[in-house]
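Support request, priority: normal
Reporter: lab tech (M.K.)
Component: structure prediction queue

Hi team, I submitted a job for Outer membrane protein assembly factor BamD from Chryseolinea soli yesterday, and the status page still shows it as pending. I've pasted the exact input below so you can check whether something in the sequence is tripping the parser. The sequence length should be 286 residues. Please let me know if I need to resubmit or if it's stuck on your end.
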Amino acid sequence: MTFSSSGFLCYICGLMQRVSSILSLALILIVAASCSKFRRIEKSADWRVKYDAALNYYNNKKDYYKASVLFEQIIPIVRGLPEGEKVQFYLAYCQFYDKLYLLASEQFKTFYETYGRSSMAEEARYMYAYSLYESSPNANLDQSSSKDAMAAMQLFLNRYPQSSFRDKAIEVIVATQEKLEKKGFENAYQYYRMRSYKAAIVALTNFKDNFPDSKYLERTYYLVISSEYRLAEQSIYSKQLDRYKGVVDHYKEFVDRFPTSTYLSDAEKMYGDSLAKINKSKNNNL
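Reply from support: The job had stalled in the queue. We restarted it manually and it finished. Here are the results:
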């Protein structure tokens, strides 16, 4: 049989399409068979069949969804049996691996509350805190879950100071602290951007008190000066003197703490102008 070059290409394309169709059909049949097998296991009245299958899905196939479905079905049956401990523990990990972190945290908590004397209780307490950490959102969103995660991890360290999870727990606490720090600064800075300088002074001052070692501290001190100065500028005359005095006080505190700051030049200008206006006010009252 003879082919032209174009005919040969058409023949190859057709052959590839047939092979592709056969492979697709085979894949569909394999998936269907797999689903059919799982459905039979799921409907089985023998909890041991489900238990063994769930362990297989978990350990060998890494199919955490199917494993969790079977584990959930047999939990009421195996509670109080030797297998119950493993089922509860593995179910928590199934949800963790499927990124259902809040559900996982609850399952790990249930585990260590139920099996407090288990050799896996320590790991469950760590994973409870770590699941909360994984569930926490980015720094620009509400950080309530981050605070819960940090508190839970600190309780874990207090309970197990020599734990093999100690270094990881410390890393979580540090990372969470940095996230809370960033969120706290951004919240305070938001008032400054909105030109709500009175609120900015309060928020920035609170940030300094709450995060005394923050990497944002130098900028925070400068923003307090700037907020106080801008607030004085837009204030009525009777309130300006006290606010310019506030600029002077904040500047002195800033210079003592950050004598080589990159913000020093701008801060000096606001300090000098505030002093001049304070002296002018005094001269006008003579």
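DSSP finds twelve helices and no strands in the chain. The two ends are 117 Å apart (CA to CA). Let us know if anything else looks off. Ticket resolved.
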